[in-house]
Amino acid sequence: MHSPFYYRISPLRIYIPPFREKNDKDKENFIYYFIFKKSHKIGIKKEISLEAMEYLKRYHFSGNIRELKAVIERAVILSKEPIINVEDLPEEILNPIKVSFLEGSSPSIIKEILLRMEKGESFWTTVRKPYLQRELNKYQLKEILHHGLKASRGSFKALLPYFHIEERDYKKFMDFLRHQGIKIETLGRESKKRRKIEFIFD
Predict the structure, then answer these.
(1) Phi-psi region of 64 (alpha: psi -120 to 50; beta: other; left: phi over 0)
(2) Which of 62, 142, 182, 197 has the fewest CB neighbours in a 10 Å radius?
(3) How far apart are CA 187 and CA 90, in angstroms?
(4) What does pLDDT average to over the chain?
(5) Residue burial 108-129, b: 16+ Cβ < 10 Å; e: rest
(6) Angle at alpha carbon of residue 92, lines to 21 and 194, rounded to 5°
(7) Cα dist from 136 to 112, 141, 195, 199, whole Å
(8) At 75, is the pLDDT very low, low, confident or very high (cuts 50, 70, 90)?
(9) Is the pTM of this model over 0.70?
């Protein structure tokens, strides 16, 4: 039986809007915060151009704040200049209609795993665990990596935020792939080639 206090507070409902429904000022605050946090962590000060900011504010982040965080961490790592420019953003942000992190002719299980990671689940729970339990095969593992490397432009280091892997676990991640017979350099080159071919036929 519920106490009288329960009935006093039970009607209370607090709605927290997703990132895409926030106003521009709130969006900018989140973006600046993640840039500052990642920049401070790697010891390199980064800023963002107005054009890149507009692309981020307009994009419909289905993975909400975690997806935004992953995109910004990737941009901070990949940007060669002190300012994050449009070219540092992933293609799905710049061309959301033409390119999606989930696009391609992958089997449904691969799309499901990519979607789960896009929403915040980690590589360890969505890929490594089922792979070791033989619920995924090596081909599926490579396809998942190809999708991620396409988004990170062939960089395994920049892939970490997409797969929700902590930087301190980078060696653990690479060791796992090598232990499964994944040829790191070959896979990186193949992913870059796939990306170039897709752009040619767009």
Answers:
(1) left
(2) 197
(3) 19
(4) 80
(5) eebbebbebbbeebbbbebbbe
(6) 160
(7) 12, 7, 24, 29
(8) very high
(9) no
Report helix, strand or coil for 179: helix
The alpha carbon of residue 17 and the mean position of all alpha carbons in its chain are separated, in whole angstroms, by 20
pLDDT tens digits, one per residue of 88-131: 888 778 765 444 444 444 457 888 899 899 889 999 999 999 88
Q: Is the distance from CB of 124 to CB of 165 less than 8 angstroms? A: yes
Quote the DSSP letter at residue 68: H
Give the ranges where the chain is alpha helix by DSSP (H). Answer: 4-9, 24-42, 50-58, 64-78, 91-94, 108-118, 123, 129-132, 138-151, 156-159, 170-179, 184-201
Mean pLDDT value of segment 62-69: 80
Which of 105, 109, 149 minimizes the C-alpha distance to 126? 109
The residues, ordered by sequence, that sit 6+ positions from 121 with a Cβ below 8 Å of its Cβ are 164
Q: Return the SS3 of 29.
A: helix
Element (H, E) at 81: none
In terms of Cα–Cα distance, which of 167, 125, 128, 133 is closest to 145?
128
Torsion angle, alpha carbons of 15, 17, 21, 26, to 10:
120
Instruction: Please say whether the beta carbons of 148 and 179 come within 8 A.
Output: no
- Contact predicate 154/189, CB 8 Å: yes
